[in-house]
Amino acid sequence: MKHCLAQLKIDLRFRMQLLLLFSLPLTFNICCSGQNIPLSVSKEPVFSETTEHPAPSGKKLVYRNDYYLVDGGRSLENDLKPFLDSAAKRISGERSNGTDDYLIFFYKTDSFLNRDLIMKEEPKYRYKLFLIYKDNNYLASYYYRGSKFINMNWNAKFEGQRK
After folding, report:
1. CA-to-CA distance for 100 and 28, rounded, in angstroms?
2. For residues 102 and 67, what is the distance between their CA atoms, to the nearest angstrom?
């Protein structure tokens, strides 16, 4: 009986060591993946909304919201604010023509919010994905009136990365 218990302890210890040995690469891959991937923003918005409203003067006011996905590793999180500033400036120069108010939204990409999942959704419901994942994925939005920068709204969750 004593021999069986000793053999069971050794066998259990061996199994635990094997489990630990095989789980380390997986743990390292999960924890450290994406650290050296540079930040990038989708070339085109993954979702856009454009509305027109009549002004008291009779002119039509055009409002546009564009949603972009940001991908990149954790090692560049300190560069997030300058990166988004630069991307918003470039995007607004390219896409704000003809709009009275223009909003650019940036969301981080992950397994719950990504281009493939967004494109599977009917266009009229895509905005709901951004509402659902706003708490975890919303990074910032930039507001332009005409082509003049007015304001930037930053998600407080990422305040430490705002430099």
Report:
1. 48
2. 11
| Cα pseudo-dihedral 86, 92, 93, 97, rounded to 10 | 180
pTM: 0.72
pLDDT > 80? residue 135: yes
Domain ranges of the chain: 1-33, 40-161
pLDDT band of residue 34 (cuts 50, 70, 90) is very low
Buried b (16+ CB within 10 A) or exposed e, 85-118: eebbeebbeebbeebbbbbbbbbbbeeebbeeeb
The tokens of 49 are what?
């909304």
3-state helix/strand/coil string of the chain:
CHHHHHHHHHHHHHHHHHHHHHHHHHHHHHHHCCCCCCCEECCCCCEEEEEEEECCCCCEEEEEEEEEEEECCHHHHHHHHHHHHHHHHHHHHHHCCCCCEEEEEEEECCCCCCHHHHHHCCHHHHHHHHHHCHHHHEEEEEEEECCEEEEEEECHHHHHHCC
